[in-house]
């Protein structure tokens, strides 16, 4: 009934096909369209000859939030009982479920910690992982990038990388983009101060 991917806030038109499976002509009629159980529109359908079909489009639907949405169409619905005499009144309705994807996921961690790590020893390395592992990409993301203290560092919809030795607090920020927009997350690696070096005076 609908073509192409659906994203929140789009205006889409419902398209349906009405078949006359009988051996006599069917008068013009009115179909009704619902979305998620709510009325969308009443739509006129032209008269149909025996064995013929017609495609009809109507009903401006503003796509709702992420999740499943059900579009239902009933031919010859208005007025109640319709106007067309049929041998089978039980095959006039059809419905289809469409899934709207949500915004991209964005989850980045350091040694498994979110937000800010516990203090990490000076000059130590940590493991930065986003969206689980290289085998588990960020859901609904077409692309992701990671910066290190504001500078480009890594890219990909998932990944696990070692930072190398760190000598100061470091922020790793993840940005993921998909059909439903952009999402962000970050983690701060808290590095302990460098060890104090005691100077030995000359003899």
Model description:
A hairpin with a 2-residue loop joins β13 (170-178) and β14. This protein is mostly beta strands and 203 residues long. The radius of gyration is 30 Å and the shape is rod-shaped. It is built from no helices and 14 strands. Helices cover 0% and strands 47% of the residues. The protein has a five-stranded mixed β-sheet with strand order 8-14-13-10-11, with no helix packed on it. A four-stranded antiparallel β-sheet has the order 3-2-5-6, with no helix packed on it. The termini are far apart.
User: Proportion of β residues?
Assistant: over 45%
Number of helical regions: 0
- Main sheet strand line-up: 8-14-13-10-11
Q: Kindly name the structural category.
A: mainly beta
Describe this structure in a few short sentences:
The protein has 203 residues and is mostly beta strands. Helix content is 0%, strand content 47%.
What is the secondary structure topology, with strand pairs?
Elements: E1 11-19, E2 29-35, E3 38-45, E4 53-62, E5 67-78, E6 93-100, E7 108-110, E8 115-116, E9 127-130, E10 143-148, E11 151-155, E12 159-162, E13 170-178, E14 181-189
Parallel strand pairs: 8-14
Antiparallel strand pairs: 1-4, 2-3, 2-5, 5-6, 7-9, 9-12, 10-11, 10-13, 13-14
Q: What attributes does this structure have?
A:
rod-shaped, single chain, 203 residues, mainly beta, 4-stranded antiparallel sheet, 0% helix
